[in-house]
From TrEMBL:
<dbReference type="InterPro" id="IPR017871">
    <property type="entry name" value="ABC_transporter-like_CS"/>
</dbReference>
<feature type="domain" description="ABC transporter">
    <location>
        <begin position="9"/>
        <end position="250"/>
    </location>
</feature>
<dbReference type="GO" id="GO:0016829">
    <property type="term" value="F:lyase activity"/>
</dbReference>
<comment type="similarity">
    <text>Belongs to the ABC transporter superfamily.</text>
</comment>
<protein>
    <submittedName>
        <fullName>Phosphonate C-P lyase system protein PhnL</fullName>
    </submittedName>
</protein>
<dbReference type="InterPro" id="IPR003593">
    <property type="entry name" value="AAA+_ATPase"/>
</dbReference>
<keyword id="KW-0456">Lyase</keyword>
<dbReference type="InterPro" id="IPR027417">
    <property type="entry name" value="P-loop_NTPase"/>
</dbReference>
<keyword id="KW-0547">Nucleotide-binding</keyword>
<dbReference type="InterPro" id="IPR003439">
    <property type="entry name" value="ABC_transporter-like_ATP-bd"/>
</dbReference>
<dbReference type="InterPro" id="IPR012701">
    <property type="entry name" value="CP_lyase_PhnL"/>
</dbReference>
<dbReference type="Pfam" id="PF00005">
    <property type="entry name" value="ABC_tran"/>
</dbReference>
<keyword id="KW-0067">ATP-binding</keyword>
């Protein structure tokens, strides 16, 4: 008997518009009718021109932005979870246990050390302090973050150092779905190679990944498929003059 493989994440007729309250309530249509499916163990790379909505899609999957219309669904063995109408309190659990997100920039909290920032997703899952600490240090070492920085708060770190803390934090909890927003943008080639290895290992354990990679070499090495957003939308608005307004940022 052949097992039926189902996607872990799917989008169907997905729309996203922003309402710019500060600009006479103008509506900006960014995404129209997006269709996608992402299998477990697959790395799907979002492609398309600047402003087409790649980061917006990741933020919708992560619950930072609301879905305007359509379906965004997680498929579990025992049922489906529709993300577009999920109550706010459910996102906390989902981000703790299911969705990992490596954003472009680390959100630094004053006085919280790099090691602690990386350990936190494990601690919130109930992993013991010692084990969380060991795993955080192993990842930081692997990402070549100098040991002398581990006890310091990352606020003063270089862009590449902050990015590596962010990557360690994103990968440590081994979530089944990982969202990667240009995780290698500030890295040198040795550290880019480490990130490619981390992505390959995540694939091997069945993690579904949705990513944005502007570096062509990295993209080629990690992508199982590329999804040019233009070709998967019924109609895309020209959003080139948009400003940020509809940010519904929720704590990570
Ligand atoms: N919070 C927001 N409020 C209003 N408009 C927004 C908001 N976030 C994104 N947009 C608009 O949505 C469009 C898509 O932005 P997004 O950042 O998703 O593009 P992208 O494809 O990731 O671009 P790039 O490759 O340049 O990073 C842009 O025109 C942007 O201005």
């Amino acid at each position: 008997m052949t097992a039926i493989r189902q996607p872990f994440l799917s989008a169907s007729a997905l729309d996203k518009s922003f309402v710019l309250h500060a600009q006479s309530g103008q509506q900006l249509d960014v995404m129209r009718g997006l269709e996608l499916s992402l299998m477990p163990g697959e790395c799907l790379v979002l492609a398309g021109r600047s402003g087409i909505g790649k980061s917006t899609l990741l933020k919708m999957v992560n619950g930072n932005y609301r879905v305007s219309a359509g379906r965004l669904t997680l498929h579990f063995d025992d049922g489906e979870l529709e993300l577009s109408d999920l109550p706010a309190q459910a996102w906390h659990v989902l981000r703790r246990d299911v969705i990992g997100y490596v954003s472009q920039f680390l959100r630094v909290v004053p006085r919280v050390s790099a090691r602690q920032v990386v350990m936190e997703p494990l601690l919130s899952q109930g992993v013991a302090q010692d084990e969380a600490c060991c795993r955080a240090e192993a990842l930081l070492a692997r990402l070549n973050l100098p040991k002398r920085l581990w006890d310091l708060a990352p606020g003063t770190f270089s862009g590449g150092e902050q990015q590596r803390v962010n990557i360690a934090r994103g990968f440590i909890a081994e979530h089944p779905l990982l969202l990667l927003d240009e995780p290698t943008a500030s890295l040198d080639s040795a550290n880019r190679d480490v990130v490619v290895e981390l992505i390959q290992e995540a694939k091997a354990r069945g993690t579904a990944m949705l990513g944005i990679f502007h570096d062509e070499d990295v993209r080629e090495r990690v992508a199982d498929r590329q999804l040019p957003l233009e070709e998967h939308m019924l109609r895309a608005g020209d959003a080139s003059t948009a400003v940020n307004d509809d940010t519904q940022e929720l704590p990570r």
